[in-house]
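Recap from last week: sequence in, structure out.
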Amino acid sequence: MGASPGGQTDVMVEDRARKPTAAVGGTSARARRPVAAAGRSAETRNGPSRAAGRLAAKASRSDLTGPGSGWPDVASLDRTLRAWRAELTGGLSPVALSLAWFDWAAHLADMPGRQADLVAQGWRSAARLAGYSLAAGRSDAPCREPGEGDQRFLAPGWQQWPFNVISQAFLLTEEWWRQVTTDVPGVSRHHERIVSFAARQLLDMVSPSNFPWSNPVVLGATVEQQGDNLTRGARLLVEDWQQLLTGAAPVGTEVFMPGKSVAVTPGKVVYRNRLIELIQYEPATETVETEPLVIVPAWIMKYYILDLSPHNSLVKYLVDRGHTVFMISWRNPTSDDRDLGMEDYCQLGVISALEAISAIVPERRVHAVGYCLGGTLLAIAAAAMARDGDEHLRSVTLLAAQTDFTEPGELGLFIDESQVAHLQDIMWDQGYLDANRMAGAFEMLRPYELIYSRVVSDYLLGEHQLPNDLMAWNADGTRLPYRMHSEYLHGLFLQNDLFEGRYLAGGRPVALSDIRAPIFVVATARDHVAPWRSVYKINLIADTELTFLLASGGHNAGIVSEPGHLHRSFRYAIRPADAPYLDPDRWLAETLTQEGSWWATWEAWLTAHSSGRGSPPSLGAPAGGYPPIVDAPGSYVLQR
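Predicted structure tokens:
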């Protein structure tokens, strides 16, 4: 069966061809249909998607009028206005920022002693800087060293006068504002973090490294190249603006097209529904491990981060070592999919994939792997299956995936009731949260690495860095449906329902402690999305054998950590089911660091939890209703 451009025709045919089967909670994955959110009008399903002209268009619709009143519905008008305002504020809630600022300012205003101490600290810093300046910056001891990971002032030019004085003045200012915005008694922890974060954002914006007249590296390049660097930078700036306005892919990413240079591990799409394509990869060995393996990636990203170039593809690594690998490729939702919820992702995603695998590789249990949000979804599905007595899973692996959300790291800065309501207004209008808004939030967490370093290298030095495969993948964003993202933020982030046993799957609560399959958890040391200490909290609730591995790197690079990758290390320990809890600090102190990639350790664990080897299964199961449809990577991954 051929794939239509959008995948819709084949979806309908495939769905009609399936027989209803039991799913988590007794609900058929094929028979279920997304339900509209309670109380939403027809307008919210079909309304315009842009702010311009939105208010007039919606006010004129009959479905916005109150019963016989002839006036626009107040709630719809309010949401329309808030959605329009959200476009102007970049998706940040001005109310949340105002509340945080008022909490901080009011408490600080009520502390004259603290104010006097801050003024005194300011004068002491000024005196230190004056002494450093009078010595022409020749002092052996600078006033303040840059923080860990701060590479803005490491070039030799910053050690020469007057740039050493300029950098020291900025670092002292940074330190003073850190003292001003932190440890103010009475201020809530969340508000303190928001105010401190906002101060850092403003300071990062005015760093002397960002301006040509105060950056010695830029000044030196300008003199040496007679201004050609600035000319090239201006040209790059114009190109980037054109790309931004037209929505085109960044220059250089066209080299990394799925199915051409990335996501090239051979395989077939063996199942498709309205939400997923299931890829089965061709065997590369004469015999394979008896138990197949299914990977559930996050739908906030495209799956091929785990199947990048052949040299750093986790999929290829597993296939080459005799594992039968299946991969879920999520469809990129549109406004028509606004009502897809977390339950739909569980049923149409994880459960439907497991049903297909059971038909293709019958009478075999499955190693299940979930990455990021896909790992959280897998934990939900695994707990629901365990609750219902389904022992289909041989093991569960969670890669950089949270199950407790009380300490989400800096991402929590954007998650409170006010901010979530603000995001809901945006999604209510569009039907989804778009990739650019998500990318902007992640960039704000690491502004120097993701924003200002590029400003300097591209626009001031004229040195355009072509993207690599990981950078190209990062630019290939996806969308999140309105209902699903609302449920995710409220149920998991704000209420922590999954960890506390209130999360409903199939209409009934699930408990992670019900999972009996052995669990392998991978966290990364510099993860801004799923901080490792947050990921580690699964040790508090898991009631089975649990292996916890901490890898070097961040949320993405720490997972894509192929053997031979320089400067990679990890540490891990196995906790038996009956072992007492070990707190993260003690775990870190007692666990030895090992150099190299963690992939081999995990693959050995998978093999040890398998039951031997045998002949590879066929690609798909035509007799069971799962014929090969198209070659990998399929059509859903190509949707923009």
